[in-house]
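ugh ok fine here u go
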Amino acid sequence: MKTNDSHQENIPIAVIGVSHHTANVKMRERVFFTEKQQTRIIQYLSEKYYARGVIVLSTCNRTEIYVCGRKALKYIEDICIWLDNTIKENIFCKEDIAYILEREKAIRHFFRVISSLDSQIIGEPQITGQVKDAYEKSRLLNHTDILMNKMYNFGMQVEKEVRSKTYLTEGAVSVSFAGVELARKIFSNLHKTTVLLVGAGNISELSALHFVNREVSRIIVVNRTFKNTQRLAAKFQGEPMKWEDMEQALHQAHIVITATSSNQFIIDKQMLERVARKRDYKPIFLIDLAVPRNIDPDVTGIDGVFLYNIDDLQGIVNKNIERRKTEIPKAEKIINNHVSEYIKWYKTLPVIQAITQLNKHFEEIRLQEFERLKNRFPKNSREEAEYLSKSLMKKFLHLHIITLRESNKDPQRQKQHIDLVGEIYKLNGSGSENDKQN
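structure:
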């Protein structure tokens, strides 16, 4: 199986994945991992293949396993075989379905995923939460390392910047959500509106969810089968009304969503004229999501009536999708900047680890000596004595730390200084050696 052999930065991070880019839904269903399976994968890769960090992301559109550690990366193809044995399929080992990205490419891919740039619907917000949940699962199992933690933190920064500095997440890209966005233009404050759902199927349910998320004050449900009416109304704490009470429901509504399978108009011009008169022609917003249409298009001639059908909304969706596409270069630039920052941080990691070990070494000596001699100090001066010992330690270490940090500019000099410090103070593995084991 082919992997990314880039030698730009030898960062020991890789991702093995299958997504909507490479596999159809039937194939993706076969590689979907349950919570229990995810836990087993995380623990097994850590124990069997020496992975220092593992994240398993499994959604309807992708399954990806992120792995950290130099030893683990040597076993990438073995891991793919083990994954295929686990699901009893030949998927993770097939080059035309599965992908393996390593080092910088793996980090860039993670940033694109978490910021929804790699999503089937670009800019969709769910993926960020899904990545967060996957990371938290591994963190709580103590199976993330410093590289993975930093990648996640950088990724969250990327997501925030993409969301705040581009229009990648702006505008509705589903017909049901486009209806909500249109409603907000007519009724600036949805908190005071009543929504009438005519129909109790999936489209009505999805529309209800969008409106509930916008905190509408009231939802009424009308459907031919009253049992289904009650079911949907209960799900969103709404009010069920009988089919024969349609006009009464229309009279109370500000926004109406229709999505039934009827072959005839269920709201005609005569009905809406009666309703409009009773309402004193106050605005009523009608969204007809049905095919064939549920609402007579002639109602648009009635004062205060605003009617949109599925084609109107699809036009809005298409415009929003095109607008999002124009934002991709801006988002890619943000991602590239953060990849560069991650690489810069990674280059300083050996020095950071060496400084950490050096501080720890001297702090242990300081504590031992302070504990040995503390009874020689008057009780009321022990706090000052401890402060003095800390201050002296910082001064002793100051030039060491400055020299180590300055060596970041020259990798060869950096290694020499780290090895020298490790040798002089008999540290348990210098920073550079620690890095090699990652």
